Amino acid sequence: MSENRAVHEGADREREIVDRVPKELFVGGTWRPATGGRTFDVEDPSTGEVLCAVADATPEDGLAALDAAAKAQESWARHAPRARGEILRAAFEMIMARQEDLAVLMTLEMGKPLPESRAEVAYAAEFFRWFAEEAVRVEGGYAVAPNGQGRLLVMKQPVGPSLLITPWNFPMAMGTRKIGPAVAAGCTMVIKPARDTPLSMLALADILRECGLPDGVLNVITTTSTGRVMEPLIRDGRTRKLSFTGSTEVGRRLIEQSAGQVLRTSMELGGNAPFLVFDDADLDAAIEGAMIAKMRNIGEACTAANRFYVHSAVAEEFARRLADRMGSLRIGRGVEEGVQVGPLINADAREKVGELVAEAVGRGAKVLAGGEKIDGPGHFYRPTVLTGVPREAYLVHEEIFGPVAPVLTFEDEDQAVADANDTEYGLVSYVYTRDLNRAVRVCERLETGMIGLNQGLVSNPAAPFGGVKQSGLGREGGRVGIEEFLETKYVALNLS
Ligand code: NAP
Predict the structure, then answer these.
(1) What confidence tens digit (pLDDT) does each residue in 4-19 have?
(2) Claim to verify: residue 455 and residue 485 sit in the same structural domain
(3) In terms of domains, do 237 and 312 share one?
């Protein structure tokens, strides 16, 4: 097949995949246009071209979605847990059966290379498999009161209609990590995906519909009037839960809005992950881990290693080897074979990365690899390694959200821990050492909700994902994930 024909057939297939996705709002089990027929464009960040237009919801559409969720709540809570679990299990199977098309769709709207989209689709599906199993394991309690007379009965019940808000960086997994436990617990929901990447969520909603999720249990709102649509829903007395994944800045604002009705919130917010390499570390493993922790998702992950603190004895070798690896990655459109680094999500994101690098260089940092954007269509930025980065540089304190690795040095364990903890964030840290005593000591002292010990990836549906400090409240996944969507009710039983 000639190269031109292959490219052409690829383009036809991409169009077909995008065409198949519903582009309207999903309310009460029906696809319907936004009030007034308003739409907004979704772009491919690797070309800047418009992929399609989707419905642009108004505040009235948002309320209609909450009406549908509130109406469905009572009967959904009465649905047998096994039946709820089986819908999730069927959706898990269907996502995996359509993995390839869903991966292409994700790459088109978000930019990450196809192998990473495939991995995210599988990761997203795993949350449905996990919570299909958890649906039938919700337990309460029974105890004899200390005085021997009363009985204490504890029951767990669905918290009720929930608002779920998700970011663009993991367009499907951040959704299933919330939808899975909400469905398993018996909650109805309104979900709002990010405006940059609504298509994966729309495709997912259609899969859940096909798998028999009753009308009104899941409602999807896409909008560019985000604040105007969501604030009235957050303040509406029928809403019982807000689960948000996104930036700390927006998270803070939503916590304030939630205070009005003392709404239960789960907040998965920003990160500023330190990556510590001690002088006794297996350097090959540390480089492998660094590549994953830094370059997964083009560096656009809340878990991305944001600052590398390396013992001065091995820092030079570590930085050189990291620069060799990062500098030789293949950059391009994520749908193309062999591409390892896609574009950043939009022009603003690339601008911010460029400014952070320039600021660090202005303070004396040295560029070992990359350090510049790539001209032409798409929002590409070269994988970058900086050394000699001063501790005051902005990128040491702010989420970079791009393929930039600042390397700093330390002399001893106390300094490494102090540097790692010197941030308002507390999502994840990475530690490389072969000394078990040191590993335990350092893990105990690090102020993060998660730690990758000699590994560069912590995400796992069976694990409690979440942060401390300003990285958030609550945990998603694992045994505790479903608790975020359950209330505890206690009945005092008088046997006298
Ligand atoms: P963002 O700007 O905070 O947006 C996240 C979501 O919130 C989007 O759906 C956005 O809608 C919506 N939103 C924005 N303003 C809102 C408002 N006033 N009221 C209600 N919703 C509002 O974050 P992002 O740029 O999409 O995502 C990147 C951030 O997410 C990073 O900070 C990253 O660390 C964090 N993140 C955290 C985790 C975690 O598990 N801790 C996981 C992934 C990402 P629009 O698209 O319309 O703006």
Answers:
(1) 666 767 899 999 999 9
(2) no
(3) no
